[in-house]
Design a protein that fits this description.
Layout: H1 2-7, H2 10-27, H3 64-100, H4 102-117, H5 120-130, H6 137-145, H7 150-163, H8 167-174, H9 179-215, H10 226-235, H11 244-277
Helix pairs in contact: 2-3, 2-11, 3-4, 3-6, 3-7, 3-9, 3-10, 3-11, 4-7, 7-9, 8-9, 9-10, 9-11, 10-11
Length: about 280
């Protein structure tokens, strides 16, 4: 770990620090006992920042600090679930298609390309509308994951087509290993580095998608997320009421999180390039 930190570039270090802070907020502070932040009139309305309410309260008497902590928790959870499903499914299908060939490859490729070219926004709008404003973090993540696996699958298939011609793969075929076994034991280790980079990128994309739907008023109304926090503050005229902490905190948190994840992704890719260069 010490050697990694010494050789890591500045973008990777900053990205790791920022991401770590958000993880601590979303998955450690979140579990500190507190009043349900979604409850109305739990506190006096429109309080300013104080020792008891660090970011004040909303016009509905909600603590902005705990709303923000829960929003970070839910947004990160959605991003991680979507990234996990998209990466695992995409890598498996891509490797299977690339190494199977024949009819299996053609069928999987057609399905993958269909999901790549389908415009996801109208489908997401339709599916969120069918939820009728009520959903859970898991259900929202599954909806977003529906389109998260196709592009990784296509990229991994291209990788598999080049790797399968190598000598060690031919040796595995001749030794009697099946397609799934070859993919899992011989090829997957080569794909893990790329998969980690895709996982981070998919996390960022999923959070951005949910936030975009929320700001458009299309995210489930009972889901506390960074996008919904911005939407709720906008709906209730937080700007005109000069409640800058209410509307500003989720905006700043979203921007900092996106920048942190972006630095983490680009820094990690540069780190890998530097290691390959050695």
């Amino acid at each position: 770990m010490k050697k990694f930190w010494e050789t890591a570039n500045i973008r990777l270090k900053i990205g790791l620090i920022v991401t770590f802070i958000f993880v601590i907020i979303g998955f450690v502070f979140y579990y500190i006992p507190h009043v349900n932040p979604f409850s109305y009139n739990a506190y006096p309305a429109q309080l300013g920042a104080s020792a008891e309410h660090w970011l004040g309260t909303t016009t509905m008497g909600q603590d902005v600090t705990w709303l923000l902590i829960e929003a970070i928790h839910n947004s990160l959870s959605i991003g991680l679930i979507v990234a996990t499903i998209g990466t695992v499914v995409g890598v498996f299908i891509g490797l299977l298609a690339g190494f199977s060939g024949g009819a299996t490859d053609r069928v999987l490729t057609v399905i993958t390309d269909t999901f790549v070219v389908i415009p996801s926004l109208p489908i997401l709008i339709l599916m969120t509308s069918l939820m009728k404003g009520s959903s859970t973090v898991l259900l929202m993540a599954l909806v977003l994951a529906l389109f998260a696996w196709a592009w990784p699958s296509r990229q991994i298939r291209s990788m598999a087509l080049t790797i399968k011609e190598r000598d060690f793969i031919q040796t595995a075929w001749f030794s009697g290993e099946g397609t799934v076994q070859v993919v899992a034991t011989e090829i997957l280790p080569y794909a893990l580095t790329w998969s980690l980079s895709n996982f981070m990128n998919a996390t960022l994309a999923a959070i951005a998608s949910e936030s975009s739907l929320a700001v458009l008023g299309l995210s489930p109304a009972n889901l506390i997320s960074l996008g919904n926090m911005i939407q709720w503050a906008r709906e209730r005229n937080a700007i005109f009421g000069q409640q800058w902490l209410w509307i500003g905190s989720p905006i700043v948190a979203t921007v900092v999180l996106f920048v942190g994840l972006f630095l983490l992704i680009t820094g990690y890719n540069d780190y890998l390039s530097m290691k390959r260069g050695r």
